[in-house]
Every structure is written in C-alpha cells, then in structure tokens.
Amino acid sequence: MEEVIAATQQWEPFLNWNSQYNGMKIVCQQEAATVIIDPLKILMKGVIPECFNRGSFMFPITFQTSAIAITQIFAMGAMGFWLVRSGRVPESGLRLLSFLSINIFFPLFIFYQIIAHFDAVRIPFWWQFPLVNISLALTGLLISFLVTLRHHGHLKDGFLAVSSLNNGGYIPMLLAMSLPLGKWAGLVYTSVIFSIIGFDLVLWSLGLWIITKDKSGRMDLRNLINPPLMSMFAALIIVLTVGGHVIPQAVLKPVKILGDAALPIAMIVIGGNLSLCSFAKMNWTQVTGAVLIKLIVLPLVTLLVLSVVKLNPLVSFVAILQACMPTSITISVIARNYETKNQDFINRGIFITHLLSMITIPIFLGLYGKLVN
After folding, report:
1. pLDDT tens across 194-215, in order?
2. What is the pTM of this model?
3. Is 281 helix (H, G, I), strand (E, B) or coil?
4. Close Cβ partners of 84 (under 8 Å, ≥ 6 residues apart)
5. What is the pLDDT of residues 115-127, one digit of tens each?
6. Domains identified in the chain and CATH numbers
7. Considering only CA atoms, which of 57, 123, 118, 120 is closest in space to residue 313?
C-alpha cells in the first residue's frame, strides 16, 4: 500500500480521480485525507508491475478454496444428472438446453464480459492474457497429437479435446473470487476475464472443428460462423473502435441477466449427459492418458516455462492458473448440440478431470508460489 500511495503523489497530475470505472478502487487514508486510487490507472504508468516484482503480489491458496469452487461445479451438474436420470427432463429437453446454451446464453455471456470488462487503454499489455489460453491450448494439442499419432477415429478427437481444452472461465473466476487476494482482487479478476478471450477464440474455432469433424471428416468453415465467436468479434470491434460505454445500461442489463444463465445451464446439460453414458464401457487407458496430460503434464510444462521465461507476474499467475484447470464443460454442450460420436468419452473426461483437479490445482499453485512467484 505504501508503494501505491507514493505512486499517487508522483502521478497525481495525470490521474482522473473522478473516474466512473467499475474496477477495484483502493481507499487510502493519509494525514486525515482520503484518496481513492484506481490501480489500473497506476498500472498504465508501470507502478503496479514494479510492486509485483518486489514480491507484494503473493497470497496463500489452500485445498479448501479449490475444493469449494469444484464442489459448486458438481452441485449444478448433480442437478442435471438427477433431472435426466429421474425422467423429469427427457433427452429431447437436453438437446433444447444445449441449443439455447450455444445459440443464446453463451453468446450473451461472452458479449457482456468483453463489453463490461475489456479496456485496452487502462491495461496496455491486455493482449498477453488471450495469448495465455491460446498458447496452453496449442501446447496441449501438440502433446496430445504426438501421443495419439498412430490412432484414428472419433475417440482420438475426443482425446485431443479433453486433454487440451481447459475450463478457462468458470473455475478460474471462482478461484479469483475465493482467494485472499486483498487489494489485487479486482485486477486479477479482470485479467482472468481477458484471458477468456483467447480461450473462446480457440474453443469456437479449432476446438469446435476437432469435436465435430467425425461427422464430416474435414473442417467445415460454416461451423466457424457460430453465435459465440460472432458475439466475441462484435464485442471486440465495439470496444476497440467506439468503446463499450456506447451500449446503454438498458441494453446491457438484460444481456447480463440472460448471459449469467450460460454457466448453470451448461452444468445441467453436462450432468444430464453424464446420466446417459455408461462408465462400465469406459476405455480407461485413453481416458487416463487424456487426464494425465490435462492435469499433470501441461501444468508441469507451464511451470518449467514460467521458471525460465520471466513474464509480468500477473500474466505469469494467470498462465499457471489456467494451466491447472480441468477440461472445459462447454465441449460437452458442443458435443451434445452437434450429436457427435465422442460424447461419452468427453463427458467421462470432464467428470474425472474436475474430480481430480480438487487435488492437483492447489498442488501446482503451491509449487508456482515456491518456484516462480
């Protein structure tokens, strides 16, 4: 806090203290005067990264904080499992929920997050956060491709998806909200949201092709013109050209309300999908291989790279956070919506990676704190 107070004195002529920015504010009391500080504005002047390098950007993480986030995931999934298994929601209803998720809820969720949180001026190195998830996905795909080089068929496509496409939004945001980040909470939360841009770009382009290519055998460019990807590009264009403030709150509020339904609806769909698949016929060798790559190999590779390449500490933390994540729940919704042959394999991989990540996430974040941070 002392560094930030000193920074305000140095940069006071350049800062607009009446800003209405919705990010985190720091209230400092010094000599009976109260000063409200926007750390993102100070970040523009290079002060906060300097504080990070002094070691002030450190915080504890426990098994409990990670387990709470994963438990919330399973609670929503359990609801979908029960609804479908008990017959209250038929399989046709599950397809309808998948359709609504892909074509309405996810596009609105993505649009609102970018419009509300993306500000290229306030965080000049914002472009590094999308690259984090793009790099992780491509690295995971490369490792998985080498492992399955001699294998073919729809299970290979499911293997590639499960081992490389991480849960880049929900669990990282839950962890960011649960961790004792103190004054850095708003900055970390915004950075995680920025990284989702890269995840969405990979998921709704290369990821969509991998999951659905068993139906056509080649990349169908028509599948790349999908509502989530179009929503992301539309929001980015608005923010980078005229600014997100041009969208009135009367429009943004209903967009947010509907978009907030994306994650719980997706979890109900995956829970329902799990109730329809048989674990007795599981190919344990392939599922275990995909889980090991996703939860062990990729985080280890990321730790090695971060220990050698000195990135901005905030970018570095987001990188290891995303690398530890289990498989994306959205790929189950995609598989259900497009009725692919690899649905069962994907659902089993998602279930097991989320279950085991309750152990692996705190382990690797703890190693990061000791070896890198």
Report:
1. 888 888 888 888 888 888 876 6
2. 0.71
3. helix
4. 90, 91, 94, 271, 272, 275, 276
5. 887 777 777 788 8
6. 1-49 (no CATH), 62-371 (1.20.1530.20)
7. 57
